[in-house]
Amino acid sequence: MQLPQALISEIKGVTGFDEAAFVAAHDTAAPTSIRKHPIKGSACTLTGAAIPWCTGGLYLPERPIFTLDPAFHAGAYYVQEASSMFLEQVCKTALLTDHPIKVLDLCAAPGGKTTLLASILPKDSLLISNEVIRSRASILHENATRWGYMNNWVTSNDPRDFSKLTGYFDAVVIDAPCSGSGLFRKDPDALKEWSEGNVQLCSGRQQRIIADIWPALKQDGVMIYATCSFSPAEDEDILDHIVATYEADSVRIPLDNSWGIVETISASGMYGYRFFPDKVTGEGFFIAAIRKKDASTTLKSAKGRIQNLGKMKDQAAHLLATTETQLIMTTKDQYHAINSLHEPDWLLLSQALYFRKAGTELGQPTAKEWIPAHDVALSIDAASSLPSAEVSKEDALKFLKREDIDTTNLPRGWNIIKYNNLGLGWMKVLQNRANNHLPKHWRIRMDINNADEL
Ligand code: SAM
C-alpha cells in the first residue's frame, strides 16, 4: 500500500512511531474481531483468541459472512475493530463503571462504542446514543435494538442541540468524525480521500464539536475523545486545545506492556493512547480521557409527571420480565417502557432532543389485541413466558429474509422466532398462514443459500 508521504511526515515525531514497521504493517491484512454480548453472548459459536483489554472480545482466525449467521442478527455479538474496544479500560479507570451514571455517546453510528458502553455501564445508568446524520441514525437504531438494553436511548441531533443541557451528563464519548488514516487497511477509500487539507478541516470540526458539547458535561465529568486518525492535529493537538480553552485534567490509563499500546504526552502534558498496527493486533486508533474542572450550572429537572397510562401498562405487562418500568407514549399509540428511575430524564430530554428510540418499544394496542414491537423480541428484558419457537439455522435465515417458514407446529397468535434461544423477531400464526413481522428494512438482502459454509 502506498501511504501518503505527507501523513508519514506528520507522524514522524510521535512517540512510538517506527516508519519501516508501520509501512510494512499496511501490507498485511486487518484482523477480524468481535465482542460478545454479556448476556446473549453464550449463543455465539464463533471462537478465537481473547482480546486482552476487553471482556468478551475475540480475534477470529478468519472472517465469516456475518450476515449468514442468525446469532449475529440476534445480537449475540458485535463485529468491532479490536483497538476501539480499549474504551472498556478507559471507562473502568475513569470510574464510570462503579455507580449508575448518565452517558452521551455523541457520534455513535453505527454503534460499536454504544454497544460496548451498554454492556459495561452499571444497571440504572442512562446511555444516550446520538448520531447527527439521519441515514446513519437508522443503522445505529437497528444495532441498539439488537443489543436490547432498555437504558440505551437513541437520538439524532446536532452536537449544538445538547448545549442547553447544562451539566447534565457524567460522561460524554466523542468518537469524532476524522480523516480516517487509521483505517487504510480496512477501507481503501479512506486512503483515496486522505489529504492534509482534510486533516485540518477535521481538526476544526473536532474543536467545534467539543465546544458544542462541553457545557452539557458536569463538573468532574469525563470526556472520552477518540479518533481513527494518526494525525497529531486530530489527536494530541486537540487535547492541547481543550486545556488551552477550558479547565481540564488528564486521566492516565494503566497499560500492560504486552498489549503494544503507546502512551503519548501532548505539549501541555495530557495523556493519549495510540494504537499503531505494527504494535497492536488492531487498526489505527487514538483515545484519551479528560476530566472537566470548570463549573457548570446543573440543570433543573423538568416539572410534571408522565401521563398516566396505567390501563395500557396492564395490557402490555406480559411483554417484559421487569416491572420497574414506566410506560411512555412517543408517537400516537406507540408505547415504550423506560426504567422508572428515568422518568425525569424523559421529561427533560424529550423537550430538547429528537428521539429515534427511548427505552424498549412495546408496540400498540388494537381493539382486540396488543401488537408487539420488534424491540421486545430482541430485548434482554423480554418475558420468558412469551410464546416462542426455536428454529433451525435454515429457517432462521429464511425468517430473517422475510420468507415463509413452516409454522404448522406453532400455536396460533404471536410467537417469537428464536435461534439458539435468542429472539430474532415476531411471527403471527393465523388459521391458514403466518405473517412475518420482521421490519422490512432490516431484512437480509443477500442470497442465503450456501449458509452452511459459515
Ligand atoms: N462511534 C461509532 C462506533 O463506534 O461505531 C463510530 C463513529 S464515526 C468515527 C463518527 C461519526 O460522527 C459518524 O457516524 C458521523 O456520521 C458522525 N458525524 C459526522 N459529522 C459530525 C458532526 N459534525 N457532529 C457530530 N457527529 C458527526
Rounded radius of gyration (Å): 23 Å
| Tertiary shape | globular
Tally of individual helices: 13
Return residue spans where pLDDT drops below 50 for at least 5 consecutive residues: none
Q: Give the biggest beta sheet.
A: 10 strands, mixed
Strand content: 15-25%
CATH class of the largest domain: Alpha Beta
**Coarse structural class:** alpha+beta
Q: Which ions and ligands are bound to the chains? A: S-adenosylmethionine
Mean pLDDT: 94
At CATH level 3, the topology of the largest domain is Rossmann fold
Overview of this protein structure:
The structure is a single chain. The chain has 454 residues and is α+β, with helices and mostly antiparallel strands. It folds into 2 domains: 86-292, 3-Layer(aba) Sandwich (Rossmann fold), CATH 3.40.50; 310-453, Nuclear Transport Factor 2, Chain: A. It contains 13 helices and 22 strands. Helix 5 (112-120) links the parallel strand 5 (102-105) and strand 6. The two termini are 30 Å apart. The mean pLDDT is 94. The structure holds S-adenosylmethionine. S-adenosylmethionine binds next to helix 5 and helix 8.
List the main descriptive attributes of the protein structure presented here.
2 domains; 13 helices; ten-stranded mixed sheet; binds S-adenosylmethionine; 25% helix; 454 residues; Nuclear Transport Factor 2, Chain: A
Quick rundown:
This protein has helices at residues 5-11, 19-25, 70-73, 87-93, 112-120, 134-147, 188-193, 196-213, 236-245, 310-316, 343-352, 374-378, 393-400; strands spanning 32-36, 49-50, 57-60, 77-79, 102-105, 126-130, 152-155, 169-175, 217-227, 248-251, 262-265, 271-275, 285-292, 325-329, 335-339, 355-357, 360-365, 370-372, 388-390, 413-419, 422-429, 434-436. By secondary structure, the chain is α+β, with helices and mostly antiparallel strands. It folds into two domains: 86-292, Vaccinia Virus protein VP39 (Rossmann fold); 310-453, Nuclear Transport Factor 2, Chain: A (Roll).
